[in-house]
Amino acid sequence: DVGTNETIANWDDLCGEHDVTDSHWSPSGEYITASAGDKIAVWNWAQGYVYLHDCKGANTAQFSPDSTKLLGGGRDGGGRVYIWDVETRKMIKSRSIDADTVGAARYSPDGRVICINSPNEDFCYLDSGSLATLYSFMQSSRMLAVSTSFSPDNNHVAGCKAKDLFVYDNPGRPSMYRCIRRTDYAPNNVCYHPGGRFIAVGGNDGLVHLYDTESDSAIMEHVRPESIQETEAKIGQEIKEKVRREMERLIREEVEYGFKQATEQAIEAEVKQQADSEIALQIRVRQLDKNDKNK
User: I need a surface site. Which of 94, 101, 149, 231 has the fewest CB within 10 A?
Assistant: First the structure.
């Protein structure tokens, strides 16, 4: 809950040891989808049930604008995109994109076009009904474009890969391209503001960068409440404290065990000494009796 900053529900049966690579609400607000490992999952958080779709190396998952379809993609078959019916849970259509993997897949705001990222193209536009290729293009090296976002007015698509943040014009004019900024960090997520003018970009520098598409300039950088260094230092300190407490516990147990063992050994030695004394006394008594008889 963003108002109380409290967790109201927890979904922990999907990931296992896998990272969640993508997650979205359905526009209807009824479902949440997430991709992790070799699964794309749908969670009806209000009713509390989950169902899974198989997708090897799942990287992306998103609902259609009308919430009736689920879009997903990953490494299946050398890179494959899927569309499932949310209500029936059946696959409607799938196709290979002839690439190693699908990095990201997004519906356009009007639901007519799907934009996917792959190592073969920066962007590949598909017809959302037939999954036929409308056009595809690449501007630089065969590196995976890791994120994409349609502008709310459906006129532009933003993306990021390597250290570039770029914008393509509407799929109707795919040749119109501009690199907004070559960054000093590696962007890994991009998202348009609902008004369409600003783009938020998260990178591996621990910052959220805000860009103005009209001036092609960064207008704000926001540090997370705790920087990466502070977080790492805090985690490191917590680990050190846990290790210290564990060492103290082990030393205390060892001391207690040593004291107990020493006490037991002392008691055993005392008992043995008393027993030896009694035996020696009995032997002396018998010798005295024997001497008396001989006299």
Answer: 231
